[in-house]
Each structure stands twice: as structure tokens, then as C-alpha cells.
Queue: 2 jobs
Job 1
Amino acid sequence: MEGPALKLLIFRTILIYLCVLFSMRLMGKRQLGELQPEELVSTILISNLASISIESEEVPVTASLIPLFLIAALELLGSVLSFRSQWFFNLMSGRPKTVILDGQIDQNALRMLRLTVTDLMEALRGKDIFDPRDVSYAVIETNGNLSVALRPEREPARLADLQLKTTQTNATIPFVLDGQVLEDNLHWCGKNHAWLERTAEANTVLISEILLLVGNETEDYFLLKKESRHSGSSRKKDA
């Protein structure tokens, strides 16, 4: 490939990448397993258009950009209509379907969803449920995920059930990740940079040498120091 052709390919690749990234940002961020049917279709079409535009030099860039942004616009329009109209949402995404009720598996629902009992049991095991009789209510959501409510007697005991008094604390969150200080998390737990410096000094490390520091609003924390490449290689050698 000659110089001008290579430069054109690099330019087209960067341009298409930025446009696809912008389109996906417009459509919103979801995990792949959480995509609704129309979102999955849009994602597949956009990826195909991008690959065609990059690989086919004879295809003008605009010939791919126009349908790319049109698909993103249709997805945005569909999201707005789904938000405003339950009928349109049901039309595009379907409805949740109950597959287990009071421990009884609804075989008709499984047939409608084209799910086997093996698929259902696998999804239950993914939620640490091995006996469908323990399930009070299970539904297949419109994105394909399984939501489960256990029978009351099968629910794990909670502190409230045991009538135990507890002290409410915030969740443990990161303060430093790979030497980068998360200022908002520090302030959220009532701490500041001075506390961080004292903590680093107490552990004889610099803040930039901290790989991970997590904690909450109490004085309890966990600090992990970065390992040098030399020490890491020596450990690997000893192993």
C-alpha cells in the first residue's frame, strides 16, 4: 500500500471511529446483555457500516456517515417514543414474561420465549438458586435477564429480621487508584488531602506509590502499595 493510500486509510479509520463513538454516546451506555432488541439491531448495523466504510476505499465516507447518524437518530427517536408511550415500548421491546409462579414453572411461557428448561435452570443457578420450588416469582425481562423473588422462608436472614442494632456506615469506596487521588470520594467520606498525606506517611509511602486505597467515613482503610517491576520480576522468578 502506497503512502497516499495508507494516509487515506488512516484518516478514514480515525474519522469513522470518532463518528461511531459519538453515535454510541448519543444512544446511551448499556452493557451488551442489557440491550433492548432495537438497540442491538442499531449496534450491529452501525458496526457493519463502519467496517464497510473503512475497508472499501471506493465507497465515499459520507455514504456511510449519513446512514450511521440516521440509525442513531432513529434510535433516539425510538427511545423518546418508548418513554412517552407504553404501547410503543411494548411494540418495540415486548413485555416481561412470568416463567415461575409459586414454585411452578410455566411451560407455555417457556415455549413462547423459546427457552428450554436447561436455559431456565442455568439462569437460576447464576443467581445461586438450584431448586425452582424456592422461587416465589421469576420473570424474563425485556432485555433477556431473569429477575427472581424467593419465597419468604427461603430469603436469607437480614439483621433487621434478627432485631440486631447496627451502626450505619457508608460503603467502602476507593480514595486512590493507581496513584490517582479521587477527591470527590474523600470529601464524601468527610476526609481531605491532609488525612490522605498522614495515611501515606503512616505507611511510609508516597501518594503516587499507592496502587489502591479504599475506606469509608471511619478510620478503617486498606492500602496496597505498588510493586516495583524489579520486585515483581524477582517474585515471579522465585515462584
Job 2
Amino acid sequence: MTSQQDALKRLAAEAAVQQIKSGMVVGLGFGSTAVHALRALGHKIQSGELEQVFGVPTAASIEQAASEAGIPLTTLEVHPEIDLTIDGADEVDPKLNLIKGGGGALLREKIVAQASLRLVIVVDESKMSDQLGSLFKLPVEVNPFGWGSQARFLDQLGATVELRLGQDGSAYCTENGNFILDCDFGEIEDLERLARQLEGRAGIAEHGLFLGLADEVIVGTQDGPQSLKR
């Protein structure tokens, strides 16, 4: 990511934070976009502009960053319904369907997204595509037991499959204790069919297709943040 892309994403994240009102429960997504958003949110809370706002983090690193920013935290057990979640995406199509999971937090991100009354996605222009799969591989989170069987299943569905590795060269492990298979399907023609196939397979914990979940996508552009709504 270039510094210019990051600056555009920051402006878009700050625009999304303008939608947060006092008393809201806010989902805090994962990745660089979430960090920009939570910093802006923390500033509003510390300045007194917002009160009684609680955040639900989607990853341990976001929990730590939110605490450092002065954002009070809560859980889905205490607040099972979230007013607004701000998150990023790896790829967005014209219908606001998403591929997510590049950072490895897709399962928790989807749990939080589905618990949200509104999901606002913040991206820069490079993440917009005509067809999901043309820019980014689809992450699929799998149970470590029998992951090779899942890789074969995904290969039979037409994907080129790679086991995601950590910095030490061993299999990357999510905070849920699972592995991630990065699947290159090319352009995915039937998103709903693929989602059903993945959801029906034992051993697949979650996939990175977020279909029909985003209510709004705010795109950071040279002309300023642009809002796309479903």
C-alpha cells in the first residue's frame, strides 16, 4: 500500500466514523482501515464529543489498539446486537459483495458483521472490481484436522489452493486455532452457489465471501470519500 492510498483510506475511515452517535455499540473491524477508524473514534471519545460508546473488537490486536485509543470495550455476550460496524475489505464488487480475510480474522469479522444493524466498509479505489476473485484470492478458514482433505475439495471446485504460512514458515494459525487456505478461483461467476458449497462442507469453519452484508461502502478517492449504498 502506498502512502497516498493509506491517506485516502484514512479520510474515508474518518468519514465513516462521523456516523457513530453517542450510546452506540460499534464493531471494530480488522486491518489498517480499522486502525484509522478506531483512532478517529478514540479521539471523539476522549474529546467528549461522543459518550457511552462501546466497541466490539474482531481481533486481539484491535482490542489492544482500541484500549490504547481510550475506547471502552464490550462483548457480544453483553451486547449481542451491534449498531454499526466499520471494517475494510480486500475486494468489493458493484453489488457491494466482498472478499475479506486477508488479515486472517474473517470468522470473527463475519460474526460481528452478522450481528450488526449496519455494516460500513471502507476501502481505497484499488479494492473495487467488476467481479469478485479477479483481484484477490478467496481465504477459506479450515480446521487443522484433515485440512488436506479440504484443500482437495477446494481444488475439485476449481481453485488453485495454497496453505497460508506464517513468518516462521509454518502454517499460519488464526486466533480460533484454524488454518487458512488461500484459493484462487479466478473470477467467481456464481457467488451464492460457491458460498453454499463451502458452507456445506464439514471442516470448513468460514469463508471470505461476505454476500449481502455491507450496507454502505465508502471509497477513498482523489476527489474525497465517495459513498456507495445498497
